[in-house]
């Protein structure tokens, strides 16, 4: 049977992809970000998962506001990486696993999640920005992606609780898949940021770190927050944190944090965190978090 072996939360800032493509990994402004992903990439290289299930959002690249689905799942052997205005990226098309994607789609619909299904559509920075920092890609990606897009752009949005339940349903889908596959769940977006309006450039480091604490130990508290709560605490675009809750919902009750990097260098608090099943005390996690807290 397929098994979820861990989960990753990551920002998906488009400038990460631009900096990566321009070889700026060692620039002083970018090095702390790229260094923060190396332990996660090493963990993935060691564990060799067969598939990454990506909860991400499309930024009006494949879907537009005249037809923007609440939840959409990609089914296909390949998905092109979108050109979002900076030119085509030197990345291979994202590889899929049609059998696994179809099984998850069917399982989610039977679990009363009404999905849109897309094929051969381009995938933008919501997935493609962090992906090369996690997986090597020459000459090709080492495994498949199951892309699950969540609407965090056009209201009404799915609630935090609904996204958490989506993650739980994805776990049931994976665990009912008959092939012995190793699967990692990736939740993308956020954390605190706002890129328009009077609060442009807003960040809340205290809330970001508290969100990460609750995500690990008290995710149910986060499911009670409204979209207005997320916007107030972290800025308009921080509502993307509901995609981290989808990731968390796919994990068991107790998880332990293997790595966390928090770097506030642009308008977004760029964050990556890695978790496995297991027990960890809040005190131990707080000690680790303090060691990685922003100066």
Automatic annotation (TrEMBL):
Entry annotated with the keyword Transcription: no
Keyword Translocase (UniProt): no
UniProt-listed InterPro entries: Gallate_Doxase_N, Xdiol_dOase_suB
Sorted UniProt keywords: Dioxygenase, Oxidoreductase
Gene Ontology molecular function: ferrous iron binding; oxidoreductase activity, acting on single donors with incorporation of molecular oxygen, incorporation of two atoms of oxygen
Domain Extradiol ring-cleavage dioxygenase class III enzyme subunit B span(s) in chain numbering: 7-270
Name under which the protein is recorded: Protocatechuate 4,5-dioxygenase beta subunit
TM region(s), chain numbering: none
């Amino acid at each position: 049977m397929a098994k979820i072996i861990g989960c990753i939360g990551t920002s998906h800032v488009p400038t990460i992809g631009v900096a990566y493509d321009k070889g700026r990994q060692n620039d002083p402004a970018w090095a702390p970000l790229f260094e923060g992903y190396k332990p996660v990439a090493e963990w993935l290289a060691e564990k060799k998962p067969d598939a990454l299930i990506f909860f991400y959002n499309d930024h009006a690249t494949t879907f537009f506001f005249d037809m923007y689905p609440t939840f959409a799942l990609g089914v296909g052997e390949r998905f092109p990486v979108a050109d979002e205005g900076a030119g085509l990226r030197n990345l291979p098309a994202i590889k899929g696993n049609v059998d696994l994607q179809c099984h998850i789609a069917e399982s989610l619909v039977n679990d009363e999640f009404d999905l849109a299904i897309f094929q051969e559509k381009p995938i933008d920075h919501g997935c493609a920005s962090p992906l090369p920092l996690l997986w090597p890609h020459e000459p090709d990606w080492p495994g498949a992606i199951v892309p699950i897009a969540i609407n965090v752009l056009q209201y009404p949005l799915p609630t935090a609780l609904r996204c958490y339940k989506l993650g739980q349903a994805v776990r049931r889908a994976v665990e009912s898949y008959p092939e012995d596959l190793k699967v990692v769940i990736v939740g993308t977006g956020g954390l605190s940021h706002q890129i328009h309006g009077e609060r442009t450039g807003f960040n809340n480091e205290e809330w970001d770190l508290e969100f990460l604490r609750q995500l690990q130990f008290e995710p149910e508290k986060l499911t009670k927050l409204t979209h207005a709560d997320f916007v107030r605490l972290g800025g308009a675009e921080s509502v993307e944190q509901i995609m981290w809750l989808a990731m968390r919902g796919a994990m068991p009750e107790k998880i332990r944090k293997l790595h966390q990097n928090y770097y506030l260098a642009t308008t977004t608090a760029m964050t990556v965190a890695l978790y496995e099943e297991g027990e960890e005390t809040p005190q131990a996690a707080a000690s680790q978090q303090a060691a990685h807290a922003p100066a």
